[in-house]
Amino acid sequence: MFVVTLTYVRALTEIDALIPAHVEWLKAHYAAGHFLASGRRVPRTGGVILAHGLTREALELVLASDPFRLAGVADYEVLEFVPSMTTAGLEAWQER
Question: What mean pLDDT is reported for the chain?
Fold first, then answer.
């Protein structure tokens, strides 16, 4: 599983102009089963994506196609972890 943090490096007006394309990109990767959750950071300095079911290399390719990355408006950090405990209902995500 991966935690991806995005940090905006350009003005929010530039980010806002790309939101519709970014949301469509997110929807495509939810539909593909790659993303579990996503949203804004507070304060609004970037975002967070929880991803699974991909290798790190495959995830990097997915992230490379994000309209935010293509426009150079955000930096990305990818943290991989192995869930050893989860809340009820999320046991399938635990390491076996």
Answer: 93
